[in-house]
User: Which sequence fits this backbone?
């Protein structure tokens, strides 16, 4: 959801930004994936098993997180079960959840007015937000560069950390537009 927030901030206060990095962003039209629906519907079955499954979907290769899966799931479950977190989260993602994605879509006319350099990084096998959402952004943002990362799901910054850091560094230094 951070990508959609960044795009909306660019529309509202463009003078506050010079360059923008989006990773697996919502902001373009896309169908709610079953994985994202279950993540947003976590409180329908708020168990450790549900949290483990959700975390698995963020990675392309489960072996990548296997050693830390229980640690991550327990930490996130503890945070998720806090009453204030549960109240906020369920208020943000009521059914039908496709409406939430639809409301985050930035119209093409607004995207064309965003002239900032934008780097979009997206895992080709992203199960959470399909990469087609980034193709839409690439089509309409006049100064965007899109990198689809193979053998990667939604955690580009974790699964492909060296590629992520290299591309972001080059972009922030003005090398990628």
Assistant:
């Amino acid at each position: 959801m951070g990508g959609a927030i960044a795009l909306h901030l660019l529309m509202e206060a463009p003078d506050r930004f010079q360059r923008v990095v989006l990773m697996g962003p919502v902001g373009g039209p896309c169908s709610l994936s079953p994985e994202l629906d279950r993540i947003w519907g976590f409180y329908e079955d708020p168990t450790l098993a549900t949290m483990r499954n959700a975390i698995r979907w963020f990675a392309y290769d489960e072996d990548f997180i296997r050693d830390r899966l229980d640690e991550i799931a327990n930490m996130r479950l503890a945070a998720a079960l806090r009453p204030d977190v549960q109240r906020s989260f369920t208020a943000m993602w009521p059914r039908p959840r496709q409406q939430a994605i639809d409301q985050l879509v930035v119209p093409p006319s607004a995207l064309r007015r965003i002239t900032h350099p934008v780097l979009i990084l997206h895992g080709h096998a992203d199960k959470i937000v399909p990469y087609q959402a980034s193709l839409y952004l690439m089509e309409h943002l006049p100064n965007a560069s899109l990198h689809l990362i193979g053998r990667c799901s939604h955690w580009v910054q974790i699964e492909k950390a060296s590629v992520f850091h290299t591309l972001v560094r080059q972009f922030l230094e003005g090398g990628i537009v």
